[in-house]
Amino acid sequence: MHILTGTASWTDPTLLACGRFYPRDVRTPEARLRYYATQFNLLEVDATYYRLPDARAAHAWAQRTPEDFAFHVKAHRLFTGHPAPTQDLPGDIQQELAGQTKLFYHQLPRELQEELWRRFLIALEPLRLAGKLHAIHFQFAPWIQRGARGMALLRECQRYMDEHVMSVEFRHRSWFSTKTASAWTLDVLREANMVHTVVDAPKGFDNTVPALWDATHPDLAVVRLHGRNADAWGNNTGASSGRFQYEYSPEELAELAQSIKRLAERVRNTHVVLNTNYQDQGMRNAAGLAAALRNTPALP
Description:
- The chain is 38% helix and 16% strand.
- It contains twelve helices and ten strands.
- Helix 11 (250-264) crosses helix 12 (281-295).
């Protein structure tokens, strides 16, 4: 049983502004990552969702973290069914798309789709070669439903993942709306050797799914904890970190620790990512969960 815990960001503006996680003399990107790696052994990079990664940055991440440190990298939003402003794409690709301000993946010419994938993956090579890229995380848009179109997008992403572990997070309830749907979805992921992501989030919304504690990959299980702030969940205005303002109680963390340990018995590695990114809530939740895992007795 090998469980790692970490957060989904280490440079969120609200985290830096609150001044509670990093010591006062830790002010540069390098110093922040080095300090973070003394506190946690797992980190999800979310900047790659907004813009294509840079190989120099990926090389720096690998150099600034210990040998046994694990990274998850979020797939770019175009790959997961979200629209992207053309101004956030590389300059030469912007020129190819002159006159367009925002578009979806299916609106791109095939050669540009291929080029975006090529650049995304080659930029991550320093992490992969260092043995630190443990998963590329695909958080599909909340309107991607179970069905032919959803499966086509999933298969399109799979085409490029031969050399990488692909963790999948669906956000439309149709994927897990019934026992039959849940079994079908898990079978699809299992047969494709993809990682099912267990999600803890507010319940009762179309854009959230139940926490289904199951594994579909022999080497890795992924758990993402979004918090349980139902009031903020449906609010899409302002910074995304505001939607995930939540501090788990000791009782909630103890309950989660039990479920995580049960899941961890079924796979070689279990990675738990705290996506409560407002101020230092992610760090406090991750530290609290790590303590709960240490204090949870071995399961019978």
